[in-house]
Amino acid sequence: MKGRPTPKKRETHDRIVRTAAAQIRERGYDGVSVATVMEAAGLTHGGFYAHFDSRDAMLAEALDAAAHDSLGRLGRASDGVATEDALETLLDLYLSDRHVAHPEHGCVLAALGSETRRQSPEIRRVMTRRIKEMADLVERQLPGWGKAGRHEDALGVLATMLGALVLSRAIDEPGLAKDVRAAARQLLARGVPSKPSAKS
Rounded to an integer, what distance in angstroms lies between the CA atom of residue 36 and that of residue 42? Predict the structure, then answer.
C-alpha cells in the first residue's frame, strides 16, 4: 500500500483487493480493469493510485488474497481427520462436482494457472510462492510427511489434482469430466506408496 496507511485507508485498500480477487476468479486477469474494480468497490477511478502503483500491483495482491483463501479452505478440509484419511478427504473436496462447477469460489491456482505465464514477473512470483505452499499442504496429508521423497510425491499429487480439475472444467461432457477425476483418484490411490519413495 502506498503511503502511511490510516485505518480508513487500510479498509479501503482491503476492499479493492477483495473486489479484484473476486473478479479475477470469475473473469481471469484480462477481464479485470482498474475501472471495473473501482466501480464494483463503490470507489472513484481516481482514488486507485493512492493505493497501487499499477494494475499489475493490484492484481498481484488480489491473486495473493484469493490464494490465501483457497489454501485456507483446503487446509481446513482435513481438520480432525485421521492421518490415513487426510489425502482422500482433500481429494474429495478438490475433485468434487461443486468445485468443478464453481471456479469463482474455488482454487485460484487452478483457475488462473495457465494464464499466469503471460502476466508480469510480480504476479508470477506470487503464483510460484502460493504453489509451493499448496505443495507443502498436500505433503502434510501424506503418510510419512517430512521424510525423504515425500516432497516429490506431493508435487506429483498436486500436478494430478490441478490437471484433473482444469481438464474437467474444459470438457463439455459431464460424464467424461467425471471419468477424468475418477481416473486421477485411482492413479493417486495406486501411485502414492505407504512409505516415502527413495531418492535416486
Answer: 10
